[in-house]
Amino acid sequence: MALARRIGRPLRWLVRLSCARPTVTVAVALALGVVSVVFTLTTLTFETSTLKLLPPGQPYAERYRQYEREFGDLDDLAIVVQAPSLSEATLYAQRLVRELRAAHVPLARIAYRIDPKQFEGRALLYLSKEKLASIRERIFDYQELMETFAGRPTLDQLIDGVATQVASAFVTSFIDLGLSDTKPSLDVRFVEDLVAQIATRLDRPAPYRSPWGTLFAVGEERPGAGYFLSEDQRLLFILAEPKSERGSFTGDRRAIEGVRAVIRRLEAEFPDVEVGVTGKPALSNDEMTAAFRDSERATLLAFALTLALLLAAFLRLGKPMLMLLVLTTSLCWALGIATLVVGHLSLFSVMFISIVIGIGIDYGIYFLFRYEEELFLGRSLREAIEITAARSGPGILLGAVTAAGTFYVLCLTEFRGVQELGFIAGSAILLSWLAMMTVFPATLVLVDHRHARRPTGTIPRALALERVHVPLVERIMTYPKTVLVFALVLTGVSAWGLTYIQFDYNLLHLQAAGTESVVWERKILATARRSGFTALASAESLDELRRKHRAFSHLSTVSEVDSALLLIPDDQTEKLKIIRDFAPIVAPVRIGPATPVDLDRLIAAFETLKRRFAIAANEAPEGEAKRQLHDVTTAIERLLIKLRQTDPETSEPVLAYLQTQIHNDFVRNFQRLQANLSPQPVGLKDIPPELRKKFISDRGRFLLQIHPAVDIWDREGALRFITELRSVDPDVTGTPVITFEAIRFMERSYQQGTIYAIVLVSFVTALMLRRPREILLALLPLGLGMLWAFGLMYFFDLTFNMGNVFGLPLILGAAAEYGLNIVLRSMEARDHGGPLLARSTVMAVLVAGLTTIVGFGSLMIADHRGIFGLGLLLTLGTATSLIAALVVLPVLLRLMYQAPAAPPTRREEAPAAPPVAAAQRRDARG
């Protein structure tokens, strides 16, 4: 207690100075508050980038900033379209882009398609060498069939050509059944498909299937050609770059809300099309919007509930309102300090007001309860204020230092977001304490002037002390065994619950349920098996780009790699040589006009084909080849029977239509092949400007965007993805890398912060009490409360995550004062007389704990699940610590200490004396 007395003297002096001219004190405080608010409103910005919250000098962060300077915005807004058909999706995409431009939505760039016409005549270069070589070999093998059918494109000529091909294959003793790796002379599946299709058409209408297979497969123009599609073509992507507003809490909000407004306008016109907006800008915007909205609601609720508790505790409006006004003034000071020193708020620090309300009001509660107790015991106004400062002030100061210290130690961690939270919240707590020790006493002098002189009617001190007992707590203390058994059982249950504690690293789980950007990010993960977030790497030359592109593409955790090579084919020299090999055969071929079906010639052609397959089947060795050749012969024989038995008036129109389809199919594919026989090599100059800007910088650096094939929101998936990427390029960066490293920094920061907080609380408590038994007693409620809270998390379906784990130091700072104040007051009672547990102290601890709980509990109205989880964890920790302090600790104090039989009396605690005598004593004490 010697240290407490030494601390009490300057606190008495501070309060005396503040109350000497109370009007000036209050006026200065309000003026500083107004200046702070004006300064904040005109200067404070909001930091939404995780990148800027990382420790300075991180190589991957510096590379990301360099890429941003060279390539522009690296994370696009993704508008995802899911429609019943691909054609409807492309139609919607075209309409949406037109509407976005017409509505002047602030988007710097919109991209959803690369026009394939830009690369006409070069389609063969985009095939693989193996595919191109296969086309060459088939052209060599089917040259005669191709030329004869082109000259007279009829069904019977096609069958005659196949028969000739069978004869050639039989001469070379080889017919390909799709079972051999050697060079094919005839693909029997071609004959099987053609025969089956003709037979089916004679029975009923059927969809057309091209018999040409891959013979002329240059790369057909599909309905979605050039569009940005998922691999299964179920999702179409429109990529946009929003124009950000600097310093805004949600810098991309106007752009994102503009896009969503246009999407809503198109809903009636496209009722079957589902559209969502996601990507890093949307996820960040949605999270910031939810956090800002939740912060406002939680702050208002915290103020309202705190006021309600104060009204219930003090049963009047005046002083509780004054206390809240003083706290509000200190929060204005804190905003000014945060603006001056840090300059911005982030997702981590935006909730500090809601957190500090519940803690900062405690110091006023302790002061007011003790002040009114001293008035009750017969002090004059100034005596009551000064004794409160001298006796309860050290405990209040210690609680503030401990709470602020547990925040300030976060400044020793590595993650800037956590450092800023620690500085802002710690400063706000100290400023709250300062306001409660200066401005609040000054306001009491102004409003309680009726107590300026000592009350004329006082009651005997013994009776007064008796009336400051707490009957409920005293009654609980008479059942020590029950209380201790309760504590042991709860501790055992909590220890069992500790075995089920888990840590959830998935940041998507922190967002509000049903958040559009999260829903569509998950849909992309489930449908396209990739994320909207890409890792980034660079190359200084085209050869390095090709090498890295291949290496990244072969990784198991990579779905695809985007770079300038998307439009620059590999091995163009070798491919051009392959094309030159077959170009002289294909180029001179001219396709004749279509002619009517000649049923007799078709039957004769099939007869010839059947005989040749029958010979091949008889000569083939026993096995799979012989069986398949025999099956083809049987199928042709059945088709011949059907052709002869079907009425020509029925069969000829059907066959004519099929012949037309085969002819048109041949013309389209063959002419497309001919149009691509003389391709010019594709170079960097051929890349469209919008892609050049995205993948090639002005200084010639190439960018690679690497899409994950694993769930990077899962800890294991992210670790595998980044580990594999770094095995190819240690300098890889991008949002997945930055997020992964940020989580590691945050995790380490929270661990360090918790350890620092425990050391700080223990050190300050030991410094203040200096007695091992009292130190343990003061820390016991905090230890039990933390243990119970962590164990009970299982029953509340609560896991640790990146949104609530930093609540551990907060619980330590907020709850450390409960046991400390009770033990300090019990030591004062032994030294100066009075009950072991004074009513003012117990009520102050109770009300302070409840206000802290409602301050923390107000966070539980948040839609943001990370903020909700933080509020629940803080509420649990504070509530359990409060129960331990008010139920378990009094029992232990009663067991260890007996109430003093004849408490000593200090001069300042003497029965009421005239004000003059009191003034003389104060003057004598100096």
Walk me through the structure.
There is one protein chain. With 926 residues, the chain is mainly alpha-helical. Helices cover 63% and strands 5% of the residues. It is built from 32 helices and 12 strands. Helix 1 runs antiparallel to helix 13, helix 12 packs parallel to helix 15 and helix 18 packs antiparallel against helix 31. The radius of gyration is 41 Å and the shape is elongated. The two termini are 22 Å apart. The relative contact order is 0.14. The C terminus is likely disordered.
Main features:
926 residues; mainly alpha; four-stranded antiparallel β-sheet; 32 helices; 12 strands; 63% helix
User: Can you tell me the residue ranges where pLDDT is under 50 for at least 5 consecutive residues?
Assistant: 172-185, 459-468, 899-926
Our estimate of the beta-strand percent is 5-15%
Largest sheet: 4 strands, antiparallel
Termini separation (Å)? 22 Å
Based on CA atoms alone, the radius of gyration comes out at: 41 Å
Structural class per helix/strand content?
A: mainly alpha
- As a percent range, the share of helical residues equals 55-70%
Query: Globular, elongated, flat, extended or rod-shaped: what is the shape?
Result: elongated
Order of strands across the widest beta sheet? Answer: 3-4-2-5
What's the average pLDDT? 82
**What is the tally of beta strands?**
12
- Tally the helices: 32
